[in-house]
Amino acid sequence: GRASGASAIGRAGGADVETASEKEEPEKRPHSPGEFRDRFSKQMAMVRDHYGLSARETEVAELIARGNSVARIAEILVVSENTIRTHSKRIYTKLDIHKRQELIELVESFDPEGR
């Protein structure tokens, strides 16, 4: 009786580990507001606030800056590639930039520690 109970606990422990690793996977996706996983995400939120980007534009901008292709972003966000291109144009217009590298440099120019 006891041995099977211990092995059931062991299995539950294993399931918890799997659940923890599954929880890590969505962290590669953009965060919900207020949940920052790293410095770049904090900087992205500062860009959003400074330039008045929508939540979706911020999400797309971060995915662009992190090196994702239009096709990959469309896949991640479950929208068409044309929708991503439209978001990209609006983002670049609002930020007055023309290239991905300019987006990265702009985001990195914001200091999340306020220094």
Automatic annotation (TrEMBL):
<dbReference type="InterPro" id="IPR016032">
    <property type="entry name" value="Sig_transdc_resp-reg_C-effctor"/>
</dbReference>
<protein>
    <submittedName>
        <fullName>LuxR family transcriptional regulator</fullName>
    </submittedName>
</protein>
<keyword id="KW-0804">Transcription</keyword>
<keyword id="KW-0805">Transcription regulation</keyword>
<dbReference type="GO" id="GO:0006355">
    <property type="term" value="P:regulation of DNA-templated transcription"/>
</dbReference>
<feature type="region of interest" description="Disordered">
    <location>
        <begin position="1"/>
        <end position="37"/>
    </location>
</feature>
<dbReference type="InterPro" id="IPR000792">
    <property type="entry name" value="Tscrpt_reg_LuxR_C"/>
</dbReference>
<feature type="compositionally biased region" description="Basic and acidic residues">
    <location>
        <begin position="20"/>
        <end position="37"/>
    </location>
</feature>
<feature type="domain" description="HTH luxR-type">
    <location>
        <begin position="45"/>
        <end position="111"/>
    </location>
</feature>
<feature type="compositionally biased region" description="Low complexity">
    <location>
        <begin position="1"/>
        <end position="10"/>
    </location>
</feature>
<dbReference type="GO" id="GO:0003677">
    <property type="term" value="F:DNA binding"/>
</dbReference>
<dbReference type="InterPro" id="IPR036388">
    <property type="entry name" value="WH-like_DNA-bd_sf"/>
</dbReference>
<dbReference type="Pfam" id="PF00196">
    <property type="entry name" value="GerE"/>
</dbReference>
<keyword id="KW-0238">DNA-binding</keyword>
